[in-house]
Write a structure and sequence with these properties.
This protein is an all-alpha fold. The protein has one domain. It contains 7 helices and no strands. The longest helix has 27 residues. The C terminus is likely disordered. Keywords: Hydrolase, Membrane, Metalloprotease, Protease, Transmembrane, Transmembrane helix. InterPro entries: CAAX_protease, Rce1/LyrA-like_dom. This is CPBP family intramembrane metalloprotease. One of its GO terms (molecular function) is endopeptidase activity.
Length: 202
């Protein structure tokens, strides 16, 4: 059953990610970027995308949960996730999680990889992807990490020539990450924080 918070959250996602798709369609048309030609699904590309998403998910878990014990950068990253990101998803129901993971993966890969990477190249598109995930000054650390993930998605697209590879990698990573956030127990540093971000950055 959907709760009010989940419905409101999904509406925000539709507005944000739908806007990205709209910009991508207009930009692609004006600049003659045929990103839609790279949306033909094949079993090989879909399998590669799912596998890449699972690999990325495992790496993220190791880096955030274990890297934070030994490295100050990863410790800050984990604190941002605990304090700012996890609380947002704690009351999201599973159907909403599925919807959010799918629409964010599809929309963001069409925009950042399908259009921006075609227009500006891998590195600049990845940097823009990272900046889109900065919601406050202290979250620049998170943005850098997101930019690195953007490079990963961009390389998957460049090597395969098919948008379904980064799309499915993004969807798989987002889905399991959000499920993890919804069940994550608050840490001492995050349990005292009651505010939630209005922006949705996935």
């Amino acid at each position: 059953m959907w709760n009010t918070y989940s419905r409101q959250f999904v509406m925000r996602v539709i507005l944000l990610e739908g806007g990205l798709v709209g910009v991508a369609v207009i930009w692609g048309w004006l600049q003659a970027i045929p990103w839609h030609n790279n949306l033909t699904p094949t079993l090989t590309n879909c399998g590669a995308g799912v596998l890449a998403g699972l690999i990325l998910l495992a790496l993220n878990y190791v880096i955030v949960e274990y890297g934070s014990r030994y490295n100050a950068y990863f410790r800050t990253l984990k604190q941002l996730i605990d304090q700012d990101v996890s609380p947002i998803f704690r009351h999201i129901v599973l159907p909403a999680v599925i919807f959010i993971a799918i629409i964010s993966g599809v929309a963001e890969e069409i925009f950042f990889r399908g259009v921006l990477q075609a227009q500006f190249g891998l590195w600049l598109a990845s940097a823009m992807f990272g900046l889109a995930h900065v919601w406050r000054k202290a979250a620049f650390v998170y943005g850098v990490y997101a930019a690195i993930i953007g490079v990963f998605f961009g390389l998957m697209y460049r090597l395969s020539g098919n948008l379904w590879v980064p799309i499915l990698a993004h969807v798989v990573n987002n889905f399991f990450a959000i499920v993890y956030y919804t069940h994550r127990a608050p840490t001492p540093t995050s349990s005292v924080r009651g505010e939630q971000r209005e922006r949705i950055d996935l």
